[in-house]
Amino acid sequence: MTVFRTSLRNFLAHKGRMALSAVAVLLSVAFVSGTLVFTDTMNTTFDKLFAVSAPDVTVVPKTDDDGDGGGGNGPGGGNGRPDTVPAAVVRTVEKAPGVRSVEGAVHSESVTVVDSDNKNLGSSNGAPTIAGNWTRNDLRSMKITSGHEPAGPNEMMIDADTARKHDLKLGDELRTITPTGDVTAEISGIVTFTVTNPGATILFFDRETAQRALLGATGRFTHLNVSAEPGVGDAELKRDVAAVLGADPGSYKVLTQQEATDENRSDVGSFLDVMKYAMLGFAGIAFLVGIFLIVNTFSMLVAQRTREIGLMRALGSSRRQVNRSVLLEAVLLGIVGSVAGVAAGVGIAVGLMKLMSAMGMELSVDDLTVKWTTPVLGLLLGVVVTVLAAYVPARRAGLISPMAALRDAGTPADGRAGRVRGIVGLVLTVLGGAALLVAARADKAGEGSAYLGLGVVLTLLGFVVIGPLLAGGLVRALSAVVLRMFGPVGRMAERNALRNPRRTGATGAALMIGLALVACLSVVGSSMLASATQELDRSVGADFIVQSDSGATIVPQAQEALAKSPDLDHVTQYKWVEAKLTSPDGKTESLALSAADPTYPEDLRRETVAGDLSAAYGKDAMSVGDTYAESHGVKLGDELTVAFKGGETAKLKVAAITSDDTAIDKHSMYTNIETARRYLPADKVPDNLLMFAQAADGKEKQAYAALKDALAPYPQYQVRNQADYKQELRDQVGQLLNIVYGLLALAIIVAVLGVVNTLALSVVERTREIGLLRAIGLSRRQLRRMIRLESVVIALFGALLGLGLGMGWGTAAQKLLALEGMGVLDIPWPTILTVFIASAFVGLFAALVPAFRAGRMNVLNAIASE
């Protein structure tokens, strides 16, 4: 109890200094807890929606990949028409024991709905636009709150969320663009979800209109909703339904409500997992930075209590008790910071939900999910990290002998420890640099990635360990440029920064980590952009590219409008055709052939290592990439067996082998669209994934304007010339980097708190010295400037280490990307210099409060302090 009371007294005595460390723990735990609460809430939202909307048993067509019957709604897949179940199967399923009712349903995501101004009413956040027929099963998750269900081809219903966002009302006319044509209808009703709709746009037609518009024919459904008689379980019903389908059970999948829910959940689960683990990764970085803050805090507190520790030892306290006393303070700090962090994390989750709702993904606070594991994990992480960070200072405190502590002599092993530290840091750095070099020279990206990860970890640890040794030289160099112009005040700031290299190194390391990641990602992003731009200039010959940013295929009516556009030399179609390819060595692989018009080699210039690419567009001919050719022993003139999905099997001759040393269409295999049509039924020929166009000589501006006018009724597609495409690449890379920088901002904030804490404790440590400086004539203004300059040079030291380290990581990563066709190394010097200069302002900001407090010290009291 005596040790606990001592720890509590010390904790409360230094509560102001502990507060900043507690904030670091709070922020880190808050980010972890907020991420868990936010993703758990999203999972709850989708789980409720899927569970409520799924019938007792669902019957869907079974596809080759055992999918959900989507039938090519994805990019490169099919003609936008889902796989279907014949209406006759409804009568078959009705005969199964335990079946109360069966209804056929139509569901498609290959639609776009626009208003009278051609504005796309679909979600902008990636949520789908779903069209279908209104069924009794839909009443499980929604209800008609206005108007009535559609009664003919000129009526439709829409969900209330979409109606509210776009100010739609009954009687408004909307146009729905489908793969089979456009459907224009008035809003006859508005449906409201009884659970949360995460942001999808929902349309309902009557059954026959939905079948004709979405499937191209009546008498078919995408799935059947089967309801059970009272007392019949889902598993029993599934067994009986499968039994009556027994003549051809391989054609259908029968799913219970739970199985259908699990399948739907898996579709969004991977996205949520990626987002969750990415955010937790950034929280881990913030934790790592926070460790340096806590280590510095306890190191300085221990140093300032050296004589107190000596008295405790002289009065009989053992090393273990001193050690335990410091660790108990860390436990108290971890508990306080973690409890506050968990509470703040719930607030962060609610804020993220509000932000997502503003962006179009509706998330209700009613679904807020705080699992018991979240606060437990937050508390555990916060306390464990804090105790681990405080262990070294606590152990150092226990090693001080009573007499050495009473005369402030410190630990006798400091010199030896510094030498050992230098050797360990140097070894780690050299090993890490060697791993990065091996990664940069790797022949395969997979092998190089492992060495890259190892190099990043080792060099980071090496720089952290060797930081105090680097501080001497780098701080002097920075001071010569930045501080010397401030005269004596600048020189005093330099000496203060050099007084305790270990402290300066740890403080700079906290900032180093965040800025190293910023520099690395900046180099990678800039290099990817420069490589893609160079590849566009080198490979793309087409003047215009037409595609959907969502990856949807181009509907036939939009293709026709584009083909009729004036001032064009030619238009090239490009499709992905799913097939199974058997090579001469007998190996079979599922892949997608790139089927295009014979003008494609003009629009995309592909280098060949054998043959002529134009020959691949001859009758029953194709090309392969050199990677495939090498791995399967394929040579020019060989015949490959190609089993077209949903069609016939063909023998295609290899007329060209293309180089895979490219970033565009890497590993693609080409054939003529007519070849695909020869072996596929008409209803299985996929729509174009994208299209290229070449302007007639001297007609580029006119053709560009005409294409935009032709596709104006189809806002889901974008017409871009090469300048537009490059700008789109810049925007996409910029948006991605901004998101990453935003997440890294948490680590930067924690690092700033570390600088503030270090300076604040340093001011307390130098109270008497400050009083003496004031007594011999140093003004308050000069004192504040000295502390600010010290902060600036520490921040610049951390920035210099971080930016140098990050550029090394980024350069090694780019060499790996070069194996995937991204061959240009581009160092974004403006970004690097901006970050370096901004670090000086970070230092100024961090020093505001410590400098202000130092300036307010009473001179006589400061001189009299111990």
UniProtKB/TrEMBL annotation:
Entry membrane topology: Multi-pass membrane protein
Predominant subcellular localization, coarse grouping: membrane
Gene Ontology MF terms: transmembrane transporter activity
Biased composition (Gly residues): 69-80
ABC3 transporter permease C-terminal domain boundaries: 282-398, 743-858
A single GO cellular-component term on record: plasma membrane
One Pfam family in the UniProt entry: FtsX
Keyword Heme: no
Phylogenetic placement of the source organism: Bacteria, Bacillati, Actinomycetota, Actinomycetes, Kitasatosporales
Signal peptide: none
Keywords of this entry: Cell membrane, Membrane, Transmembrane, Transmembrane helix
Subcellular location: Cell membrane
Span of domain MacB-like periplasmic core: 19-243, 507-706
InterPro entries (UniProt xref): ABC3_permease_C, MacB_PCD, Macrolide_Exporter_MacB
TM annotation in the entry: 277-303, 326-352, 372-394, 423-442, 454-483, 504-529, 739-764, 789-809, 829-852
Region listing for Disordered, in residue ranges: 58-85
Protein name as catalogued: ABC transporter permease
